[in-house]
Amino acid sequence: MTYYRDLSPYEYGESDRPMVNVGWLGRGREFPTGPVAPTVVAGLARLAVDERNVYRGWHECEFCDAESPIEFPGPEGSLLLGHAEVHITGPDGVVYAAPTLILHYIEAHEYRPPTEFLSAVAQMTEGRLVERGDRWELPMGGRVVEQCLVDHAFSLRCDEAHLIRIEGPMTYWDSNGWPHQVDPDSEPVGMGVLLQLLRRTVVSAEAAGGLQIEFDDQSRLQVEPDDYEAWSYAGPDGMRVVSLPGGDLAIWQRKP
Ligand SMILES: [Zn+2]
């Protein structure tokens, strides 16, 4: 990978606007390290689905012998890193251009991008629903399931402020890929299998009438829309998504 200092002017590929470099690491060059919040990493993975300046070949990691292309868990299955960039616009209008390998550098090599870049990612993804075609991503990626609640529904709570409540029948594929049909309307003990979700990290949660949530142990939960409110999501700042009878979504969120 060509090395560029963080926050230097971008010049690697085509650009119709000024951008600055982030995450163009190279062998033999020092880079800052430190913790990056899992929600920010998940947010960056969401944004990296929108690949920019796609290259012809694949760049490898120069710091380890990870097989190229390097895979990274993303909202639509694995992202393949190393042949494109992710462009992020900060609240002050600065545009950051990073190679998608930045996700691997953060995860495997403890690289810590500049704070203003991390803030821009957080601003764009945290606490916001992201529309992608006919589906919406709930801001759950990177969050840990802290509570499983059972009444006449099954609910998952992450970070206090994020609650998903499921009243309709669902399918849970456990980490071995075995499907379990769970109906909150039947015997409560049937929901026991879902307790495996406690303390798991959400990789992505996507709504398109139905709801699909993926977890870090490869397990996933799917709810189909129904003729009543099959599921709902409540987040911070009054953010709310409800699966309406028939499968349309009702969405509330503050203006950006
Ligand atoms: Zn590496």
In this entry the ligands are: zinc ion
Give the overall shape, derived from the CA principal axes. elongated
* Low-confidence region ranges: none
| Oligomer status | single chain
Query: How does the major sheet shape up?
Result: 7 strands, antiparallel
Q: Which percent range fits the helix content? A: 10-25%
Widest beta sheet: strand line-up: 6-7-13-14-15-11-12
Please report which band the strand proportion falls in: under 5%, 5-15%, 15-25%, 25-35%, 35-45% or over 45%. 25-35%
Number of beta-strand segments:
18
Alpha plus pi helix count:
3
What would you say this structure looks like, in words?
There is one protein chain. With 256 residues, the protein is mainly beta. The chain has 2 domains: 20-126, no CATH class; 135-252, no CATH class. 12% of the residues lie in helices and 32% in strands. It is built from 3 helices and 18 strands. It has helices at 38-48, 102-109, 115-125; strands at residues 20-21, 70-74, 77-81, 85-89, 95-99, 130-132, 135-137, 145-150, 154-158, 162-166, 170-173, 179-182, 202-208, 210-215, 220-223, 231-234, 240-243, 249-252. The protein is elongated. It starts with 19 loop residues before the first strand and ends with a strand. Bound molecules: zinc ion (ZN). Zinc ion is lined by residues 61, 63-64, 66, 104, 108-109.
